[in-house]
């Protein structure tokens, strides 16, 4: 698996975790915003503060990432769910 694919997968997982429905300011949904989470999504490494902040920012986008056939498999990974939990971001049910 290439680094780009892995990064996208990790970002999707983070987005899914943050997709809980809420009223928020306009957010540009861009899975690459979750790049600070790549290491945590692909290993047992704990998420950084930057990762958790980005995950929270992208929370309104998570269901969209989950429903995307290219990203869904990554967003539903055990590591993505662990990162979301560690960051205090509820995993969405879409």
Set out the fold topology:
Elements: H1 3-17, H2 38-42, H3 49-57, H4 62-67, H5 72-75, H6 78-87
Structure explained in plain terms:
The protein is mostly helical and 94 residues long. The chain is built from six helices and no strands. The chain is globular.
Low-confidence stretches: 16-24
Arithmetic mean pLDDT: 80
- From the alpha carbons, calculate the radius of gyration and give it in angstroms: 11 Å
Share of helical residues: 40-55%
| Beta-strand residue percentage | under 5%
User: Mind describing the biggest β-sheet?
Assistant: none
- What is the count of helical runs? 6
Features:
6 helices, 0% strand, single chain, mainly alpha, globular, 94 residues
Short description, anyone?
With 94 residues, this protein is mainly alpha-helical. It has helices spanning 3-17, 38-42, 49-57, 62-67, 72-75, 78-87. Helix 1 crosses helix 6 (78-87) and helix 3 crosses helix 6.
């Amino acid at each position: 698996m290439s680094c780009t694919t892995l990064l996208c997968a990790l970002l999707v997982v983070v987005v899914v975790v943050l997709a809980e429905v809420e009223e928020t300011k306009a957010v540009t949904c861009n899975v690459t915003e979750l790049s600070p989470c790549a290491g945590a999504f692909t290993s047992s490494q704990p998420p950084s503060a930057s990762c958790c902040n980005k995950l929270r920012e992208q929370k309104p986008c998570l269901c969209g990432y989950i429903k995307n056939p290219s990203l869904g498999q990554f967003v539903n990974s055990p590591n993505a769910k662990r990162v979301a939990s560690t960051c205090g971001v509820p995993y969405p049910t879409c």
